[in-house]
Amino acid sequence: MNRANRVHIIDDDEAVRDSLSFLLRTAAFDVATYPSATHFLEMLTKDIKGCVITDMRMPDISGLDLLRRLRSSSCALPVIMITGHGDIQLAVEAMKAGAVDFLEKPFDDERVLTAVRSALEGTRTDGERAGLRSEVEERLDSLSQRERQVLDGLVAGLPNKSIAYDLGISPRTVEVYRANVMTKMQAGSLSELVRMALLVQSP
């Protein structure tokens, strides 16, 4: 098996591990599964390859704690977070801490495969990052003031109801603005939208 193509799945839910493992093996990825972050850390080596998919909420060591440990030990493995509907704020925090993507439950197969392929492709060059940053800035400039406020709320990890309350508008109106933001930013998912916003904010 190609270790560089290995996907390390970490989740305390056996059904989730089995489901993701079956999907990824069917798509010709090499897969290893672990019932906890502790089990994964026990076998972690300096020459480990591939990427990590980890649940955000796990007993003992959470997905976010695992990410921080990997980054503090200079482990460059790309990390994709699995999050529940109420974990968006944590997911955004994880991306700020270095996660490359997050998948909201329930997630569809193609979304998982796209996230894994992107993670395994590696980081962009400085030139590619600069070009993408320029494109994102142009898209941001196309947003209205209200759309930018909604975007700021989304990047902060706030749910629609909280954004609505802060702006003095209805949650339904927030949904409309959110859809407009996704279209103008050419974002296919919330995680992609967050990544673009964080790219512009980064030094």
From TrEMBL:
Gene Ontology biological process: phosphorelay signal transduction system; regulation of DNA-templated transcription
Pfam family, one: GerE
Gene Ontology molecular function: any one: DNA binding
UniProt xrefs under InterPro entries: CheY-like_superfamily (IPR011006), Sig_transdc_resp-reg_C-effctor (IPR016032), Sig_transdc_resp-reg_receiver (IPR001789), Tscrpt_reg_LuxR_C (IPR000792), WH-like_DNA-bd_sf (IPR036388)
Membrane-spanning intervals of the chain: none
Keyword annotations of the record: DNA-binding, Phosphoprotein, Transcription, Transcription regulation, Two-component regulatory system
PANTHER family given in the database record: DNA-BINDING TRANSCRIPTIONAL ACTIVATOR DEVR_DOSR
Name of the protein in question: DNA-binding response regulator
Gene: fixJ
